[in-house]
Amino acid sequence: MSATSDMFAPPVNRAMKVLDRSFFQKTVPISAARIFSPRDISRCRKELESSKDLPSLNLSRAMLVRPDPDATRAQSGGKCILLKPEILHNDITTWSPGLRHLESSGALGVIPYSLSLDYSSYTYADIMNAIIEPSDEPDELPTGFAQAGHVAHLNLRSKYLPHKHLIATVLADKNPHVRTVIHKLDDVGAENAFRTFKYEVLHGPDDMAVTLNEQGCTFSFDFSRVYWNSRLHTEHERMARGVFASGDAICDVMAGIGPFAVPAGKKKCFVYANDLNPDSFRYLNDAIRINKVGDYVRSFNDDGHAFIRTATADLLQSRYKVDIMPKTKPPRNRSKSRAPVVAPLKTLVQPRIFAHYVMNLPASAITFLPNFVGLYSNVPGVSRDEIRELLGKHGYPMIHVYCFSTKSDDNVAETKEICDEISRQLKCEITPETPELVVYDVRDVAPKKRMFCASFRLPEEVAFREV
Fold first, then answer.
1. Which domains does the chain have, with CATH numbers?
2. Which EC number applies (predicted)?
3. In this predicted model, what pLDDT tens digit does every residue of 149-197 receive, in sequence order?
4. SS (H, E, C) the chain
5. Whole-model pTM above 0.90?
């Protein structure tokens, strides 16, 4: 830490066990530009910023424009602008040419200023560095957390567990939308197949009923009973906006509460959304209702292995369509019996072939791939010739399977490893050179672990293999 940075750093107390907000008070002697006319505040600030006379440090909530330290001036609305610590009010040689010009023109004067800092002036990271002994290892401080509605979810390393309540309290203080802070006690999916986890409340009420918005969709659920990861919002958006097309039929095998399915329904995709967890199924139905996508999203509560085949067979035999009606309001004085017949703007016909299968269960989704072997070889009520005709029209489906692997700078080794495992599961060679094969780097989940999405088109040899 530089000497200038140290001037603004909060007082240090490594022995603090219970948060004492009053401890973090400090007065820093600096200089300020006294603005003589209120109409010059904006202009002076811009010119001082241009001449690099403003503090470059992040003073958090300590705003640069402050009331004049002279009480009489302050009462009449007088303001001053804080200057960087290197500028001395009584040494013009420390002033920039821009500051000198503003002073000589009568727009401002340079005065001493006592900057009072307190707990509210500092960021979460500032307070953590003042409480917890720093480490030589990078990214050691527990700064990251996932948030679902008002709940912040921490994964603390063992060395920080003695400070867990302090950390949680400061985190809630510095994030106004956080009311409850929890700490995960086991690995997601380690205790059950529903990817829920045991947790400990570190701060706030044990209230896990959350409501949040993602991609313009509202989701309300009990965070303790279903799987939700807000850090996947970019991936949800990538698929819904960049991969799925309006009118596509999509099979979401492990849909959870619908972060892929519901936005896809908003896009007028036809979605078969399934999850094994009864609570996820219930909240998925709530999301379908709340977001008014019932015309496009169907929910299921089945085992994913079986669902891949049953959903495929059901769609092949479907004859479903949705009329897109114009948005009109009938006259108030017209009875329903006399209301005119309104023709649909267009009709969307649900395809009989899924364009995409999504399997977001990275710990085990890749082991579901054998269910695609012989997917079209013996579908009750639909001939193989008819299926081939439909595939000729729509194309073979894309499979998007999520998985974990190691991490490297170029993901070359990881891509090959994932392709090898896909090949083993399908008993069909899939390589990094396979056309349309993409292994997408989703996110880091641990120092040596990364989440990927492997997307590839279902090979014809696999789809019609006799089983």
1. 3-121 (no CATH), 136-207 (3.30.300.110), 213-329+336-463 (3.40.50.150)
2. 2.1.1.228
3. 999 998 888 888 889 999 999 999 999 999 999 998 765 544 457 777 8
4. CCHHHHHHCCCCCCCCCCCCHHHCCEEEEEEEEEECCHHHHHHHHHHHHHCCCCCCCCCCCCCCEEECCCHHHHHCCCEEEECCCCCECCEHHHCCHHHHHHHHCCCEEEEEEEEEECHHHCCHHHHHHHHCCCCCCCCCCCCCCEEECCEEEECCCHHHHHHHHHHHHHHHHHCCCCCEEEEECCCCCCCCCCCCCCEEEEECCCCCEEEEEECCEEEEEECCCCCCCHHHHHHHHHHHHHHCCCCCEEEECCCCCCCCHHHHHHCCCEEEEECCCHHHHHHHHHHHHHCCCCCCEEEECCCHHHHHHHHHHHHHCCCCEEEECCCCCCCCCCCHHHCCCCCCCEEEECCCCCCEEEECCCCCHHHHHHHHCCCCCCCCCCCHHHHHHHHHHHCCCEEEEEEEECCCCCCHHHHHHHHHHHHHHHCCCCCCCCCCCEEEEEEEEECCEEEEEEEEECCHHHHCCCC
5. no
